[in-house]
């Protein structure tokens, strides 16, 4: 990998200072020392980060393009992130906005194994938008969660995931919960004669996740959900690789640091490392993403990029049934709408509300 | 673990809205759904987060104390962070400021194995402040890095670490670099008749790190450096546990998201999970930490906290030799001053500058 990585930062600085600030940033994210300490000419020429362009985006805000030597960041996800935004994450005037990678990276990382079309194939839903829901609250025992899954699935929800707060707690151990929910889902699928999927939340150290993945395989499940920023990008990538044949769903927990652009992190990078689908908060719910952020994120997940399969955008976060039309108009049909809490609040009418949700999504654009 | 975790957030809100905002935050970081969806009384009583106190810290800024059920966060580092700041990291009005844990957590996580006294024992330096430096720039071959280590060690630097940008690159593979630097260090130690330590940067997936740890052990080294926020907290903790007898140094790469207080993340939590020493940017260098942030971070690393050993503060980030007196006056002697770039810029006088650095530190307070 001899080509250069092009990184775009947004930097706050006075116009008179931006050139020096950009230069310092290029050094921080490459050799990280005074140039006086760099005596080898080859390192000065090739390894030191280079400022390629500076463009104003406001009176005291600039877009700065820096090129980094790909030799400094082998195709190891943690080291790539380290080189893109390791130390400069501690400098509050900098935001990591975008990255263009030489083709060797997408080839090495591989991206989604199944992607949108793979998920559609598993669900037998080639065109319509998809539906998802979440099992919560935490504190429920496995059988209670299984009961919720069963009732949601009877309403035809395509994918039912563990809430990201549900991990491997004493009140609902992974080894007990996953088989219980899987059984409930099989029964509901048999009743409806349709494929519906359950995504357990796989978490902990790489060792923990591999033990959990064994259970997922034993239950014949097709999907897992992980939190890449908490389990570590390298471990996320490794699990995504090892989860051969499984759909990998990425959850944005802890990904909210405001200084990595969400479309880059949740859209582009998670996809690069193997996310078949990426969950993110849709605007207008409990989170602060703007419509522009959501649009950019969905675009980054789905658009043509090297040979990587498209990744499914999964807007979530306080969506209610009455927003379905609005969301499908916004995202089109290559999307999964994830409605958790507002469905569960339906109580005894859970299956009916789930059925209304899935019917509305299915009828859109017919 | 039946007691509650007390989490302190700083929240931006208008006075008329803070009560509702705090309540929403307590729900977000616990059951994460409308209370109408929480039908079991026991979950409402015990699992739902509770707002314990709200205190103003500015006109539109409040300190909010929320208690969470420890049942929701077993002693697994990733899940703990997930419960403390998973989804709310995506809400820009919230900062994670502090956490008080029931005693079962420190007991389960264990904290530093060796801590400050263990590091002092390895160096035969029971009282004085310690000195550190870094091998850089990246791009150098193993023998060149080994040469720098040798010349720094001849100047008496206690601990020499890989730059955090040096990982397992083709120009300096871990398996070639670590033995080369270790040999150079052994030779310098023999010349000086003193113990000096080399800390290789261990990175990648948990599998990668274990392979690297084998090399570290084979070379008889005493220290490793890791980036907890990049390798994942659970994997950091696991490696810290498996690195039996080794000093574990934590590096702040990617830890700079402004919305987790640095004293909490780099001081308290890294220590909790096994950091014997924690590197952070000292104020006045290339980073934006204030004196108050640095003081709070050093305090969090060193103060009495349950039965955990103290963790050594390692201020770094653009420190020059002429600031030694200032830094030692600020931190006292339970500290390691890390001077990298400004020493390396000395070129041919590297050993002399290193000797001046170590002599100045040794003479302080004599």
Automatic annotation (TrEMBL), chains A, B:
Its BP terms in the Gene Ontology are: carbon fixation
Tell me which domain of life the UniProt entry assigns to the organism this sequence originates from.
Bacteria
Q: Which SUPFAM superfamilies match?
A: RuBisCo, C-terminal domain, RuBisCO, large subunit, small (N-terminal) domain
Residues of the Ribulose bisphosphate carboxylase large subunit C-terminal domain: 115-343
Q: Name one GO molecular function term.
A: magnesium ion binding
Provide the protein name.
RuBisCO large subunit C-terminal-like domain-containing protein
